[in-house]
Specification:
Elements (H helix, E strand, L loop, with lengths): L2 E2 L8 H13 L5 H4 L3 E6 L5 H12 L3 E6 L7 E2 L12 E2 H10 L3 E5 L7 H5 L2 H10 L3 E3 L7 H14 L6 E6 L9 H12 L3 E5 L8 H4 L3 E3 L2 H5 L4 E5 L21 H4 L6 E3 L12 H4 L6 H24 L1
Parallel strand pairs: 1-7, 2-3, 2-6, 4-5, 6-7, 8-9, 8-11, 9-10, 11-12
Helix pairs in contact: 1-13, 3-13, 4-6, 7-8, 7-13
Bound molecules: phosphoric acid mono(formamide)ester.
The site of phosphoric acid mono(formamide)ester has 9 residues, from helix 3.
Length: about 325
Protein backbone atom coordinates (compact mmCIF):
# COMPACT_ATOMS: atom_id res chain seq x y z
CA UNK A 1 0.00 0.00 0.00
CA UNK A 2 1.52 3.38 -1.05
CA UNK A 3 -1.32 5.75 -0.15
CA UNK A 4 -4.25 5.65 2.27
CA UNK A 5 -7.02 8.07 1.40
CA UNK A 6 -9.95 6.05 0.14
CA UNK A 7 -11.75 2.81 0.92
CA UNK A 8 -10.41 1.45 -2.39
CA UNK A 9 -6.87 1.68 -0.93
CA UNK A 10 -7.70 -1.01 1.66
CA UNK A 11 -8.87 -3.56 -0.92
CA UNK A 12 -11.23 -6.32 0.23
CA UNK A 13 -13.18 -4.99 3.24
CA UNK A 14 -13.85 -8.40 4.82
CA UNK A 15 -10.14 -9.20 4.61
CA UNK A 16 -9.27 -5.84 6.18
CA UNK A 17 -11.73 -6.44 9.04
CA UNK A 18 -10.28 -9.90 9.67
CA UNK A 19 -6.78 -8.40 9.70
CA UNK A 20 -7.95 -5.69 12.13
CA UNK A 21 -9.30 -8.38 14.50
CA UNK A 22 -5.95 -10.21 14.31
CA UNK A 23 -3.98 -6.99 14.97
CA UNK A 24 -6.23 -6.16 17.92
CA UNK A 25 -5.69 -9.63 19.40
CA UNK A 26 -1.90 -9.62 18.85
CA UNK A 27 -0.80 -5.96 18.66
CA UNK A 28 2.93 -6.71 19.05
CA UNK A 29 3.16 -9.66 16.64
CA UNK A 30 4.58 -7.57 13.77
CA UNK A 31 7.31 -5.63 15.59
CA UNK A 32 9.92 -7.05 13.21
CA UNK A 33 8.34 -5.08 10.36
CA UNK A 34 9.00 -1.71 11.99
CA UNK A 35 12.50 -2.37 13.26
CA UNK A 36 14.78 0.53 12.20
CA UNK A 37 11.90 2.17 10.37
CA UNK A 38 10.61 5.71 11.03
CA UNK A 39 7.25 7.34 10.49
CA UNK A 40 6.92 11.14 10.49
CA UNK A 41 3.47 12.43 11.50
CA UNK A 42 2.90 15.99 10.31
CA UNK A 43 0.14 18.08 11.83
CA UNK A 44 -0.98 21.33 10.22
CA UNK A 45 -3.99 21.24 12.61
CA UNK A 46 -4.84 20.24 16.19
CA UNK A 47 -5.43 16.63 17.21
CA UNK A 48 -5.75 14.39 20.24
CA UNK A 49 -6.86 10.95 18.98
CA UNK A 50 -5.07 10.89 15.63
CA UNK A 51 -1.77 12.03 17.08
CA UNK A 52 -1.80 9.56 19.99
CA UNK A 53 -3.32 6.58 18.18
CA UNK A 54 -0.93 6.93 15.24
CA UNK A 55 2.06 7.08 17.58
CA UNK A 56 0.76 4.09 19.53
CA UNK A 57 0.15 2.09 16.34
CA UNK A 58 3.69 2.87 15.14
CA UNK A 59 5.18 1.83 18.49
CA UNK A 60 3.15 -1.41 18.47
CA UNK A 61 4.80 -2.17 15.12
CA UNK A 62 8.29 -1.44 16.47
CA UNK A 63 8.64 1.82 14.50
CA UNK A 64 10.09 5.13 15.60
CA UNK A 65 7.52 7.92 15.40
CA UNK A 66 8.41 11.60 15.00
CA UNK A 67 5.63 14.19 15.34
CA UNK A 68 6.01 17.58 13.66
CA UNK A 69 3.57 20.38 14.49
CA UNK A 70 3.76 22.71 11.53
CA UNK A 71 3.09 26.33 12.58
CA UNK A 72 4.15 25.49 16.14
CA UNK A 73 7.50 23.68 15.93
CA UNK A 74 8.74 24.28 12.40
CA UNK A 75 8.95 27.04 9.82
CA UNK A 76 5.58 28.13 8.51
CA UNK A 77 5.15 26.38 5.18
CA UNK A 78 3.93 27.92 1.93
CA UNK A 79 1.54 25.55 0.13
CA UNK A 80 0.64 27.50 -3.03
CA UNK A 81 2.70 26.91 -6.18
CA UNK A 82 4.11 29.86 -8.13
CA UNK A 83 3.66 32.47 -5.43
CA UNK A 84 6.10 35.27 -4.61
CA UNK A 85 7.12 34.31 -1.08
CA UNK A 86 7.12 37.79 0.42
CA UNK A 87 4.75 36.94 3.31
CA UNK A 88 5.22 35.26 6.69
CA UNK A 89 6.04 31.76 5.34
CA UNK A 90 9.80 31.27 4.87
CA UNK A 91 9.78 27.69 3.50
CA UNK A 92 7.87 26.06 0.62
CA UNK A 93 6.38 22.57 0.76
CA UNK A 94 8.29 21.85 -2.50
CA UNK A 95 11.56 21.70 -0.50
CA UNK A 96 10.15 20.68 2.88
CA UNK A 97 8.42 17.54 1.57
CA UNK A 98 11.45 15.83 -0.02
CA UNK A 99 13.53 16.80 3.04
CA UNK A 100 10.94 15.16 5.34
CA UNK A 101 10.83 12.16 2.97
CA UNK A 102 14.59 11.74 3.28
CA UNK A 103 14.28 11.29 7.06
CA UNK A 104 11.61 8.58 7.16
CA UNK A 105 9.97 5.51 5.62
CA UNK A 106 6.28 6.48 5.96
CA UNK A 107 4.56 9.88 6.25
CA UNK A 108 1.22 10.74 7.85
CA UNK A 109 -0.31 14.16 7.18
CA UNK A 110 -3.12 16.10 8.85
CA UNK A 111 -4.15 19.11 6.77
CA UNK A 112 -7.75 20.27 7.03
CA UNK A 113 -9.78 21.96 4.33
CA UNK A 114 -8.96 25.67 4.12
CA UNK A 115 -12.44 26.68 2.82
CA UNK A 116 -10.93 29.36 0.58
CA UNK A 117 -11.30 27.44 -2.66
CA UNK A 118 -13.35 24.24 -3.05
CA UNK A 119 -11.26 23.07 -5.99
CA UNK A 120 -8.00 23.48 -4.02
CA UNK A 121 -9.50 21.47 -1.13
CA UNK A 122 -11.27 18.80 -3.20
CA UNK A 123 -8.14 18.21 -5.31
CA UNK A 124 -6.39 17.34 -2.00
CA UNK A 125 -3.71 19.78 -3.17
CA UNK A 126 -1.54 19.60 -0.04
CA UNK A 127 -1.74 15.83 0.50
CA UNK A 128 -1.07 15.19 -3.19
CA UNK A 129 2.11 17.25 -2.97
CA UNK A 130 3.30 14.90 -0.22
CA UNK A 131 2.41 11.90 -2.39
CA UNK A 132 4.17 13.41 -5.39
CA UNK A 133 7.34 14.83 -3.85
CA UNK A 134 8.15 12.68 -0.77
CA UNK A 135 8.87 9.38 -2.50
CA UNK A 136 7.36 7.64 0.55
CA UNK A 137 4.00 5.99 1.37
CA UNK A 138 1.54 8.63 2.62
CA UNK A 139 -1.39 8.29 5.04
CA UNK A 140 -4.15 10.91 5.32
CA UNK A 141 -4.57 11.66 9.01
CA UNK A 142 -7.60 13.76 7.99
CA UNK A 143 -6.88 15.83 4.98
CA UNK A 144 -9.09 18.30 3.13
CA UNK A 145 -11.78 15.84 2.05
CA UNK A 146 -11.21 12.50 3.82
CA UNK A 147 -10.48 10.93 7.20
CA UNK A 148 -9.91 7.28 6.28
CA UNK A 149 -8.27 6.14 9.56
CA UNK A 150 -11.42 7.33 11.35
CA UNK A 151 -13.81 5.65 8.89
CA UNK A 152 -11.91 2.36 9.08
CA UNK A 153 -12.05 2.50 12.91
CA UNK A 154 -15.78 3.26 12.66
CA UNK A 155 -16.33 0.22 10.47
CA UNK A 156 -14.32 -2.00 12.85
CA UNK A 157 -16.49 -0.71 15.74
CA UNK A 158 -19.72 -1.43 13.86
CA UNK A 159 -18.46 -4.92 13.00
CA UNK A 160 -17.68 -5.58 16.69
CA UNK A 161 -21.08 -4.38 17.94
CA UNK A 162 -23.55 -5.39 15.24
CA UNK A 163 -26.30 -7.87 16.18
CA UNK A 164 -27.78 -8.27 12.67
CA UNK A 165 -25.76 -9.37 9.63
CA UNK A 166 -26.77 -6.19 7.74
CA UNK A 167 -27.37 -3.43 10.30
CA UNK A 168 -29.10 -0.13 9.55
CA UNK A 169 -26.53 2.67 9.93
CA UNK A 170 -27.62 6.32 9.92
CA UNK A 171 -25.28 9.26 9.43
CA UNK A 172 -26.98 12.34 10.86
CA UNK A 173 -25.98 15.99 10.55
CA UNK A 174 -26.15 17.86 13.90
CA UNK A 175 -25.67 21.56 14.70
CA UNK A 176 -22.36 23.20 15.57
CA UNK A 177 -21.34 26.83 16.11
CA UNK A 178 -18.41 26.71 13.66
CA UNK A 179 -18.03 25.72 10.01
CA UNK A 180 -16.52 22.23 9.98
CA UNK A 181 -15.00 20.29 7.07
CA UNK A 182 -16.79 17.46 5.25
CA UNK A 183 -13.88 15.00 5.64
CA UNK A 184 -15.40 12.80 8.36
CA UNK A 185 -18.87 12.43 6.79
CA UNK A 186 -17.30 12.02 3.32
CA UNK A 187 -15.15 9.11 4.46
CA UNK A 188 -17.89 7.60 6.64
CA UNK A 189 -20.26 7.64 3.65
CA UNK A 190 -17.62 6.23 1.31
CA UNK A 191 -16.82 3.34 3.69
CA UNK A 192 -20.47 2.59 4.57
CA UNK A 193 -21.38 2.54 0.88
CA UNK A 194 -18.69 -0.11 0.40
CA UNK A 195 -19.66 -2.14 3.48
CA UNK A 196 -22.53 -4.60 3.86
CA UNK A 197 -24.88 -2.24 5.74
CA UNK A 198 -28.22 -0.50 5.10
CA UNK A 199 -26.92 3.07 4.95
CA UNK A 200 -29.01 6.24 5.28
CA UNK A 201 -27.84 9.88 5.44
CA UNK A 202 -30.03 12.52 7.07
CA UNK A 203 -29.46 16.29 7.06
CA UNK A 204 -31.27 19.55 6.42
CA UNK A 205 -31.57 20.58 2.76
CA UNK A 206 -28.37 22.22 1.51
CA UNK A 207 -26.04 19.83 3.34
CA UNK A 208 -25.80 17.23 0.55
CA UNK A 209 -22.35 15.64 0.47
CA UNK A 210 -20.24 15.65 -2.67
CA UNK A 211 -21.67 13.04 -5.09
CA UNK A 212 -18.43 11.03 -5.20
CA UNK A 213 -18.81 10.37 -1.45
CA UNK A 214 -22.62 10.20 -1.06
CA UNK A 215 -22.76 7.63 -3.87
CA UNK A 216 -26.09 5.82 -3.96
CA UNK A 217 -26.79 6.21 -0.23
CA UNK A 218 -30.43 6.91 0.65
CA UNK A 219 -30.87 10.55 1.74
CA UNK A 220 -33.76 11.27 4.13
CA UNK A 221 -34.45 14.90 5.06
CA UNK A 222 -36.75 13.92 7.95
CA UNK A 223 -34.38 12.98 10.79
CA UNK A 224 -37.04 11.13 12.82
CA UNK A 225 -37.99 8.99 9.85
CA UNK A 226 -34.32 8.23 9.12
CA UNK A 227 -33.77 7.08 12.71
CA UNK A 228 -36.66 4.56 12.67
CA UNK A 229 -35.31 1.04 13.25
CA UNK A 230 -31.65 2.15 13.11
CA UNK A 231 -28.98 -0.04 14.74
CA UNK A 232 -26.23 2.61 14.70
CA UNK A 233 -26.52 6.41 14.82
CA UNK A 234 -23.41 8.29 13.67
CA UNK A 235 -23.67 12.00 14.46
CA UNK A 236 -21.47 14.67 12.90
CA UNK A 237 -21.64 18.29 11.90
CA UNK A 238 -20.40 19.45 8.52
CA UNK A 239 -20.63 22.68 6.59
CA UNK A 240 -22.27 22.92 3.18
CA UNK A 241 -20.52 21.44 0.15
CA UNK A 242 -22.72 23.21 -2.39
CA UNK A 243 -22.47 26.62 -0.70
CA UNK A 244 -18.93 25.71 0.15
CA UNK A 245 -17.95 26.04 3.80
CA UNK A 246 -21.13 27.89 4.81
CA UNK A 247 -23.28 27.24 7.89
CA UNK A 248 -26.86 27.03 6.57
CA UNK A 249 -28.57 25.86 9.75
CA UNK A 250 -28.07 25.87 13.50
CA UNK A 251 -31.41 24.12 14.14
CA UNK A 252 -31.08 22.58 17.61
CA UNK A 253 -33.96 20.18 16.92
CA UNK A 254 -31.28 18.14 15.07
CA UNK A 255 -29.25 17.65 18.29
CA UNK A 256 -29.36 13.89 18.92
CA UNK A 257 -31.37 13.22 22.07
CA UNK A 258 -33.64 10.63 23.66
CA UNK A 259 -36.56 11.73 21.45
CA UNK A 260 -34.73 10.52 18.32
CA UNK A 261 -32.99 7.51 19.93
CA UNK A 262 -36.37 6.20 21.14
CA UNK A 263 -37.50 5.41 17.57
CA UNK A 264 -34.34 3.41 16.79
CA UNK A 265 -33.75 -0.30 17.31
CA UNK A 266 -32.00 0.52 20.64
CA UNK A 267 -29.21 1.93 18.47
CA UNK A 268 -25.63 2.45 19.45
CA UNK A 269 -24.50 6.08 19.39
CA UNK A 270 -21.24 6.94 17.59
CA UNK A 271 -19.20 10.11 17.05
CA UNK A 272 -15.58 10.56 15.95
CA UNK A 273 -14.84 13.05 18.81
CA UNK A 274 -14.15 15.71 19.85
CA UNK A 275 -17.86 16.34 20.37
CA UNK A 276 -19.73 19.40 21.62
CA UNK A 277 -22.14 18.12 24.25
CA UNK A 278 -25.72 19.36 24.03
CA UNK A 279 -25.04 20.76 20.55
CA UNK A 280 -24.33 17.53 18.65
CA UNK A 281 -25.70 15.11 21.26
CA UNK A 282 -27.31 15.40 24.68
CA UNK A 283 -25.48 14.34 27.84
CA UNK A 284 -28.18 11.71 28.33
CA UNK A 285 -27.38 9.96 25.02
CA UNK A 286 -23.59 10.21 25.07
CA UNK A 287 -23.48 9.06 28.72
CA UNK A 288 -25.89 6.18 28.10
CA UNK A 289 -24.78 2.51 27.97
CA UNK A 290 -25.51 2.53 24.21
CA UNK A 291 -22.84 5.17 23.54
CA UNK A 292 -19.73 3.53 22.05
CA UNK A 293 -17.64 6.64 21.41
CA UNK A 294 -14.80 5.42 23.64
CA UNK A 295 -14.33 1.95 22.07
CA UNK A 296 -14.69 3.72 18.70
CA UNK A 297 -11.79 6.04 19.58
CA UNK A 298 -9.78 3.09 20.93
CA UNK A 299 -10.14 1.38 17.55
CA UNK A 300 -8.20 4.26 15.97
CA UNK A 301 -5.04 2.43 17.07
CA UNK A 302 -6.21 -0.72 15.29
CA UNK A 303 -7.10 0.97 12.01
CA UNK A 304 -3.84 2.94 11.95
CA UNK A 305 -1.87 -0.19 12.74
CA UNK A 306 -3.41 -2.22 9.90
CA UNK A 307 -2.58 0.59 7.46
CA UNK A 308 1.01 1.03 8.70
CA UNK A 309 1.52 -2.75 8.76
CA UNK A 310 0.50 -3.00 5.12
CA UNK A 311 2.79 -0.13 4.17
CA UNK A 312 5.70 -1.75 6.03
CA UNK A 313 4.98 -5.09 4.28
CA UNK A 314 5.09 -3.19 0.99
CA UNK A 315 8.55 -1.83 1.87
CA UNK A 316 9.86 -5.39 2.42
CA UNK A 317 9.12 -6.36 -1.21
N1 LIG B 1 -11.42 11.93 15.57
C1 LIG B 1 -10.25 12.58 15.46
O1 LIG B 1 -9.62 12.57 14.42
O2 LIG B 1 -9.83 13.19 16.61
P1 LIG B 1 -8.61 14.23 16.69
O3 LIG B 1 -9.00 15.43 15.86
O4 LIG B 1 -8.47 14.54 18.15
O5 LIG B 1 -7.40 13.58 16.14
Amino acid sequence: MRTFLHVSDIGDIEKALAEAAEVKKNPFAWQHLGRNKTIILIFFNSSLRTRLSSQKAAMNLGMNAIVLNVNGDSWKLETEMGVVMDGDKPEHLREAIPVIGSYCDIIGVRSFAQFENREFDYNETILNQFIRYSGKPVISLESATVHPCQAFADLITIEEHKAAPRPKVVLTWAPHPRALPQAVPNSFAEWMNAADVDFVITHPKGYELAPQFAGNARVEYDQMRAFEGADFIYAKNWSSYTEYGKILSTDRSWTVGKRQMDVTNNAYFMHCLPVRRNMIVTDEVIDSPRSIVIPEAANRVVSAQVVMKRMLEGLQN
